[in-house]
Amino acid sequence: MSAPKPPAARRDPKVIEQLGRTRTDDYAWMKDDNWREVLRDPKVLRADIREHLEAENAYTAAMLAGTEALQAELFAEMKGRIKEDDSSVPAPDGPWDYYVRYEIGAEHPLHARRPRGQDGGEQVLLDEDALSKGKAFFQVGAASHSPDHRLYAWAADEQGSEYYAIRVKDLESGQTLDHVIDSAYGAFVFSPDSQWIFWIWRDANARPSKVFRRPARGGDDVLVYEEADDGMFLGVGLASDRSHLIIHVGNQETTEISLIPAADPTAAPVVAEPRRVGVKYDLDHWSDRWVIRTNDDGAVDFKLMQSTAAIPSRATWTDFVPHEPGRYITGFAAYAGHLARLERVNANDRIVIMARGGETHEIAFDEEAYALSLEGGLEYQTSVLRFVYQSPTTPRQWFDYDMDSRARTLRKTQEIPSGHDPARYVARRLYATAQDGAEVPITVLMLKDTPLDGSAPLLLYGYGSYGHAMEPAFSIRNLSLVDRGWIWAVAHIRGGSDKGWGWFLDGRKNKKTNTFTDFIACAEHLSASGYGKAGRMVAYGGSAGGMLMGAVVNLRPDLWSGIIAAVPFVDVLNTMSDTSLPLTPPEWPEWGNPLEDAQAYDKIASYSPYDQVAAKPYPPILATGGLSDPRVTYWEPQKWVARLRERTTGDAPILLKINMEAGHGGASGRFDFLKEIALDYAFAIWAQQRGWER
Asked: For the chain, which has fewer Cβ within 10 Å, the N-terminal or C-terminal residue?
């Protein structure tokens, strides 16, 4: 039986002249001119594009038909590790305990509350699963109760485009109010007096550009803030002590925060410290002062400053917790008598508690690789901090920590119904030496008896952008490969903040290629150390990590037995030159602006995966995407796959799978999402076992 043939993509050359440079894009036709409407309603996608995407999906299904049983097996394993009737540890707030829980078989959770400290008297606030019925996609971006506990609001996206509708429920009557806030960003906040909802409007280009105030029970919107710079993101929030509403404006390198006093939520916002390019800051109100986390004055890994002024402008900031190179202060949480800050040193976390009197102590653990996170509470007047601990071998554990007595209470351990024995596994921290001598951490998870002679298949995961760190976390999904004798490795490469903010700065803009060469150095180190073997390793990354996949397969196709690129950002030069796309201006600080800066153009062109596809034998590749994705548009993987097929000199299959009913995050249900991961893992096993000749 002959193998299925891939769809033939027509070539329709489009010549693009930019800054005195010329490039030709044969597949520009794949971008629907009507893409904005497609985000809101995928049914309006142009017919020829839809036909091609459906043909791609059919080809991928045919090529991987032999893995259907394996996919089902992988899915069943992953689902078996999920406690179906799981629930969160209740978060107390005033007279109530708030929590979410799942019912058996439900894809989405229930939001509920009960009288504080009691086991009964549950009141359902929101039933996501009921609302999702009959919808191909349903995702709640934010949900919260009003400070007076009388209202409950949620923001729901029903197509994956990240345009949300905010609805409000009267908790006394149980009725959902008639008014709906449309075209919203996923975030909103109630004013401390519970009279107003502050929300963010997404414009026609899917950018958050305005903050409005609306009466919480319905009424006319009032414009509170409008951002003129297309390159900025917007956020709204509340100070921990509920003294101020906070409007956050920023991108990857610059911040500006405006404040509205809780005593007068209709007042005009006042800027705390005006934006200065390259200066980032965030702040919170703690008792008699503002605490400011900032990279100002060369504090690359951030420091804490304080201000007792009503409006904390830079002139009023004084030193509080000094900058220490290599100790990255990632965030902090304010409570009435304590300040908790989260720090990262060499890709591991720790929590530092400071009492009002200035005495400090740490919370840390002894494993080689682990992750700690603060779980934000709902109350300010408390001495109890909740944090989550996990490692590649240890399921999540929720602790309540008394910051006065230092007593630690385990509230919950993630339950694995099908069973999990941490003693079967080992997690290690390795270090690869990059081209310039930098030490790149690698976290490895494997069975204890896995041979280190290069015979074990290895999956190497990476991201390396936007300062996002790859936390050494526990995953119910990765175990399905590890239990089959695979080694799962995570490369903590530059572009992330795994070793501090400087680690991020050394992997962006004109230093972006460090991200790719770091990943290759990790692969080579793993191979040299017996954890893997060149040609028997699968590389995996998503979004900007998908760009990483495209770059490393262009640079070193010989290293990989397969590449999984989930929603891959691979058409970097074209996307960063298209100002109509949602993320283009906000992301120029990350990549550079190829419309105005010739150096940025040349740098992006030198690594942009789509532009660098060449005549060479590529390994098997699986690219995935979502039709409603506003972050990485569907045509990026579609174009990339077409060009790869056109230019590869080998016979390995190049596959594309587009979810026609979802966006950037894939399927929205907790089980449906696992089916997509099962496909990825089945492809990895299939590609590694086939050993395609190249």
From this structure: N
In the chain, what is the straight-line distance between the N-terminal and C-terminal CA atoms, in Å? 22
Give the active site residue among 282, 323, 664, 680: 664
Nearest alpha-carbon partner for 206 in 49, 40, 434:
40
Amino acid at residue number 23: R
Write out pLDDT tens, residues 144-162: 999 999 999 999 999 888 9
The residue assigned the tokens 């002590």 is 241
At 663, is the pLDDT very low, low, confident or very high (cuts 50, 70, 90)?
low
Nearest to 327 by CA among 342, 347, 345, 340: 345
Whether residue 307 contacts residue 317, with contact meaning beta carbons closer than 8 Å, is answered with yes
Residue 25 contacts by C-beta under 8 Å, 6 or more apart in sequence?
A: 13, 14, 16, 574, 639
How far apart are the C-alpha atoms of 324 and 627, rounded to whole Å?
Answer: 45
Q: Contact at 8 Å (CB) between 509 and 592?
A: yes
pTM of the full predicted structure?
0.94
383 and 367 Cβ atoms separated by less than 8 Å: no
Selected residue with higher pLDDT from 3 and 252: 252
Q: Where are the domains of the chain?
A: 14-79+424-690, 326-413
Q: Are 290 and 306 within 8 A, CB to CB?
A: yes
Closest CA to 560 of 529, 513, 522: 522
Q: Tell me, what's the pLDDT at 694?
A: 47
Question: If you write DSSP's letter for every residue of 367-413 in order, what string do you get?
Answer: SSS-EEEE---S-SS-SEEEEEEE-SSS--EEEEEETTT--EEEEEE
**In a 3-state reduction of DSSP, which class is residue 688?**
helix
- Cα dihedral 603, 608, 611, 613 sign: positive
Transcribe 289-350 into DSSP letters.
EEEEEE-GGG-TT-EEEEE-SSS--GGG-EEEE---TT-EEEEEEE-SSEEEEEEEETTEEE
Contact of 564 with 619, CB cutoff 8 Å: no
- 606 assigned to active site: no
Average pLDDT of the residues in 543-556: 98
Q: What average pLDDT does range 208-227 have in this prediction?
A: 97
Q: What residues contact 100, with CB distance under 8 A and at least 6 apart?
A: 87, 88, 109, 110, 111, 112
CB 315 within 8 A of CB 305: no
Which tokens is 124 given?
A: 């359902």
629 is known as an active-site residue: yes
> 111 phi and psi, to 5 degrees?
-100, 130
Dist CA 499 CA 435 (whole Å) = 17
Identify the active-site residue in 284, 611, 629, 680.
Answer: 629
pLDDT digit string, tens, across residues 493-520: 999 999 999 999 999 999 999 999 999 9
C-alpha to C-alpha distance for 337 and 335, rounded to whole angstroms: 6
* One CATH from 1.10.260.40, 3.40.50.150, 3.40.50.1820, 3.90.550.10 for 14-79+424-690: 3.40.50.1820
Going by DSSP bridges, is the β-strand pair 621-626/560-566 parallel, antiparallel, or unpaired? parallel
How many angstroms from the chain centroid is the CA of residue 354? 29
Per the listing, tokens 């709640």 go with: 140
Rg of the chain over all Cα atoms, to the nearest angstrom = 25
C-alpha span between 569 and 549 (Å, rounded): 9
**Is 543 considered catalytic here?**
yes
250, 323, 352, 446, 575 from 3: Cα distances, Å:
51, 60, 59, 35, 34
**Mean pLDDT of all residues in 164-183:** 96
Distance of CA 115 to the CA centre of its chain: 34
Output the six-digit token pair for 36.
């904005």
Catalytic residue selected from 543, 561, 628, 668: 543
CA neighbor of 403 nearest in space, from 435, 441, 367, 360:
360
